[in-house]
Every structure is written in C-alpha cells, then in structure tokens.
Amino acid sequence: MGDMNLEETISEPGRSGSRRTVIIVVAVVVALVAAGLGTWFALSRPAGPGRADVVRLDKQRVIVDNSMNLYDPLVQQFSGRYSNAISEKAGQAEEDKVLSQDRERIVRESQVNRDRLQQMAESPALQDQEVAESFNRFKDQYGAVIAYNDQLVVNTSNIYRSVGGPCAALHSSLNVASETYAQDYVKSADECLAALGTAKEGADAETTTLLTDVESVIRGQRDKQQEVLNSKDNFERLSKSTLAGIALLDINDAFAKAQTTYETATKDKYSKIIESANSSNSEFEGVLKKSLEQFDAASGEGK
Amino acid sequence: MTIEPVRSKRRPVLIALAIAVVLAVVASAVVIALTNFAGQQRKESLALLKEDRLTSLVEARGKIQPAVNAYLAAYKKARNVPASREDAEKNSAKERDEFQQAVDSARTALNDVQTGNGAGGEAETIAVAITQLGDSYQAYLDSMEGLVESYPQFEGLFREDAGCSGLFVGSKAANLRERQTLLAQAAVPCREAVNQLKKSKNISYVEFARTLDNEIAQLESHAETTAKSEENYNEFVRLKDEYVKKIDDATARNAPEAEYLKIADELKALNTRIRNNRSEFDFAAKRYVSGVKDMPTLVEDVFSKNVAAQIKHHDTVIPVRVQVLKDAIDAELAE
Fold first, then answer.
1. Domain ranges in chain B?
2. How far is it, in rounded angstroms, from Cα B98 to Cα A258?
3. Which of A30, A32, A33, A63 should one mutate to test binding to chain B, selecting the residue with the greatest count of B CBs within 10 A?
4. DSSP string spanning chain A?
5. Most C-beta atoms within 10 A of its C-beta, which of A4, A250, B124, B281?
6. Tell me, what's the ipTM?
7. In B, which residues are within 8 Å of A55 by CB distance?
8. pLDDT digits over A30-83, tens only?
9. How many degrees, rounded to 5, is the angle at CA A28 between CA A25 and CA A33?
C-alpha cells in the first residue's frame, strides 16, 4: 500500500515539494511500523520448535507418568465394589451400577491418558529426531501400561463374575455330610462351569489359563459326584461318594496351584511392563533435559 | 493556499489512502495489543488458579477429616452418656455444623477451581484435569458427608434403636425353636434399619449393610434348621421307644423271624434318618455359632478396614489429580 502511495506521489509532476516530503515520511514511518509489528508478531510465535515446546512436552511427560499411579487405587476400588456386589448378591441393578460407575471411570481414565499421549505426539518439539525417537518408545511403553490396566479390568470382572459368583458357593455353602450333597454339588457345579465358560470371553492368556485350570478341577469333582448319583445300589454309592470325598481333599491344592500360577504370571507380566515404562520415561526425561540445555546454551551465546 | 483544479482531484485520494494505511496499522496494533493483553490475562488467571485456588482447595480438604473425627467422637460420647439418638444428635449439633461448614467451604473452593478458569478451547488438558479433579474431590466430599449423615443410623444398629443386638439370643431361649422365634422377632426391626443403611451415601455402610442383611438371612435359616433338627430328634426318641415296645411285644409273642427282619430294616432306615438329621444339625449349628461370633468383627471392620481404605483411596487419588492439574497449567504457561 505504501509503495502504491509513493508511486502515485512521484508520478505527480508539479506537486508541492514539502507535501510530498511529508507524505513520503508518513509512508516510510508506516512501513517501518508495519515491519516492526510484523517482526514482533513473528518473533512472538516462532515457527520452529522452541524451548517452550520442550518444556511443555516435558510437563506432559510428567503428567502421563504421574497419572499411571491412579490405576492401582482405581482398579482396587472397582474390584472391591464389584466383588462385594457379587458375593453379597446385591442384584443385577447394583452390579450394573458398579460397572457403569467404577469400571467406566477406569475406561475414561485410559481414554484421557491416550489423548495425552496423542497430544504429545503433535508437539513441535518432536521435529528433533532424538526427541521423537525417545518419545515413540515412551508412547509405546506407556500405551502398554494403559492397555494392561484396561485388560485387568476385564479380567477382574470375569473372574469375580464366575469364580466369585456361582463357583464360590460350591465349596463354602454345601454340606458335605448331607444326603443330597452329590445332587447339590452337580447342580452348583454346572452353574459354575457355565459361568466359567462365559468368563473366558475377552480374557487374556493368563486369565484364560486360570479359568481353564479352575474349570478342569471343578469338572473333575462334578463328574465324581455324578458317578455317586449314577450308582445302582447303596454299596456302590457309598464307595463312590467316599472316592469323591477323598478327591475333594485335593481341591484346595489344585486351586492354590492355579492361583499361584496366575499370580506369578500376571505379576511377572506387569513388573516387566512397569520396568520398561520406567526406563523409557527416564530416557525420555534425559533427552528432553539435554534438548533444554542446548536451548539454554544457544541463548547464552546470543546474549 | 490555492490548488490547481487538475491536481486538487488527487489530493483527497492521497489523504484517503494515507488515512486508510494509518487506520490499518492502528487496527492491527490494537488487535495485537488485545491478543497480548488477553494472553497476559489468561496467564494471570492460570497463575491464580495454580497458586491461590488450588491451595485453597487443598487446605479446605485438609479440614474435612478432623471435622469428621470430631463429630463422630462427639456423637459417640453424647450417645454413651447414655442418651437417646435424638438427644445425642442435639448434643453433637455443634460438631455437625462445623463439619457441614467444612464441607461447604470445600465445595465453594472446588467451585472456584471449576469456574475460575477463563481458559479458552486450547487449554483442553487443563479442562480435562479440572474435570477429573472435580470428580474425585466430589466423590470424597460425598462419601464423607454420607459417613457423617448415616453415622447415627450405623451406630444405633446394635442399640435399642434398631435392636439388632436381639440377634444375639444367647441363653434367653429354653429350646432351639424358641431361639429361632426370638431371632426372627429381632430380625424384623433390625432388617428395616439395615435396609435404611443401604441407602447411605457412603459405600462402606452400604456394603456392610448388604453383608449384614445376608448374615441375618443365614442365621435365620440355620436357626430354622437346628430347631427342626431338635424337633426331629424328639420324634426319633419317641420312635425309638415305640420300636423297643414292638420288639418286646414280638419277643413276648414269640413272633416269626420275618417280623424281626422287618423291624430291623425299619430300624436301619431310622438310623439313616437320625444320622442325616445329625449332620444337618451339626452343619447349621456350626455356621450359626460362627455367624454370631463373627458379627462383632463385621461391625468393627467397617471403620477399621473399609472406611480407612476408602479414605486412603482418596488420599492417594486427590493429590495426584491436583499435581496433574498444576503440571497442566505449567505446560500451558511454558515459554
């Protein structure tokens, strides 16, 4: 615009010299001001990755790392409430309430954490290749922690719904000495086996192994009690029920073994995940720190 | 000043252009200044949120637990005088008010954090952190409010209010049927109170009420089984006497062997019934006794385990939520 003004002014012959000077001065001043503003604007919004981007990314890293500490209390709260609702037979409505409140809270938590990782992925600071590589490892490892906890919620629900539900009655509320024990056992065991069957849906490998182990223990006991029921006479019934009774003695060992296997496997899996996450976090932290130091050194030279 | 007509046509154009340029410059300067001012404002409001409002929020929460403890102690003391529930509530009204004030201030502090943040759309991380903190903080306040509100109900369960102590029939009953009847009578008002407690805002009370309800049902069912077994036993004694008479009679008559064998079969069947009756009795009696014995532990666990765990949960979660929000603000303020 200023140029156009200038041109027009120049093209005017016979124009008063002082006025032209005034206009030129004004135009030059305007141009200078515009240039100054432009520079200020440009400087206040740097195009390349700046120190602030690195600081921001580091803060986001701290937030994600810190947020992982929430899974433990949240999962505990969920499993406590869910197991109470199931073992105390609070009813479907109450179970659904726990699922929609306490389980959904964890689902939302994971979504927020994934969003945080996604937001970090868009940081301009990732234009630095070293930062980007380190971030990708961080993202993968923390993504694994989030996925683990999501799966944990599914496993917990499945285990409580089956083992904690219909299966719990099997070895706590039936009277072994009762006349109808074999009959009661077979009926409860069938309910338990059905629940165990559905519980495997969506479960991970470790949980499926646990559920399968429990299933085979209970199926074995159930079949022995069924033999008692199938007995033709009193003597056969007595001998079968004695055998079934003796087999019951082993059941605690069998359950304990299944439980130990499960706990060891999941513990190992989780510690490995946490270990990798922690190491990717310290590495990422170190890279960001180095990047900040480079910025500080550069600005120090400039001064 | 005289201006030639030909040139005078250009002058307004020049002036207009100059004015336009100046206006444009001024306008952009204003826009930049405003943006900057707004940015400055935002920074200040975020700093305020981080330094003042969050500090108030944390401080307000710090006052809740002592207020809860003070109220629980005051109510218990008033009740132990002894006094009725109404009187105890009156005599602990001061502590109850102080607790309510602490909760109200905490809610105000939370509200300030939730509304005081003038951040725009770009501060998504901050908005999310505030929502998460708000949910956790709210859950804590609700649970503490429920803990205080339902305390007189919980505390009165085993007093004359609800009469659940009637479940401990002890030696009041002359026989097992009477025990069963006394238990069933005590269970009616007790159950009612338990069902009231199930509506509490505090989950520890609710879960306890659920367990207690089931425990009562178990006790009732075991009491019925044992009472029935005792009655059966009396019947068996009568049958035994009958058989003794039958055998004596057969011996006197010098009856045929077939009759003896028939009696022997019947006795065998009776024996099986007695054995089964005995096993059912043992099963139920053992569970009845342990149910009664475990009940005090069940009550104790509410505060010593469940409420304690609940408070620990909030004490873990809320500080992390606060820290995440602070870090989100720092990230936003980074330059």
1. 160-298
2. 52
3. A63
4. -HHHHHHHHHH-TT--HHHHHHHHHHHHHHHHHHHHHHHHHHHHS-SS--HHHHHHHHHHHHHHHHHGGGHHHHHHHHHHHHHHHHHTT--HHHHHHHIIIIIHHHHHHHHHHHHHHHHHHT-GGGGSHHHHHHHHHHHHHHHHHHHHHHHHHHHHHHHHHHTTTHHHHHTTTS-TTSTTHHHHHHHHHHHHHHHHHHHTTT--HHHHHHHHHHHHHHHHHHHHHHHHHH-SSHHHHHHHHHHHHHHHHHHHHHHHHHHHHHHHHHHHHHHHHHHHHHHHHHHHHHHHHHHHHHHHHHHHHH-
5. B281
6. 0.83
7. 331, 334-335
8. 778 777 777 766 666 555 678 899 999 999 999 999 999 999 999 999 989 998
9. 125
The residue whose two tokens read 């109200």 is B104
Which pLDDT tens digit goes with each residue over A120-141? 999 999 999 999 999 999 999 9
Task: Nearest by CB to A175, from B17, B135, B280: name it.
Answer: B280
Dist. CA A218–CA A224, nearest whole Å: 10
Distance set, CA A168 to CA A128, A159, A173, A180, A234 (Å): 56, 11, 8, 19, 30
| Domain ranges within chain A, ordered by starting residue | 2-44, 53-158+280-302, 166-267
Q: Which residues of A touch B279 (CB under 8 A)?
A: 175, 177-178
**What is residue B86's predicted lDDT score, i.e. its pLDDT?**
92
Q: What is the CATH number of domain A53-158+280-302?
A: 1.20.58
Contact between chains at B14 and A23 (C-beta distance less than 8 A): yes
Least confident of A73-82, A241-250, B137-146, B227-236: A241-250
Is some CB atom of chain B closer than 8 A to the CB atom of A242? no
Q: Which two tokens stand for residue A158?
A: 């499945």
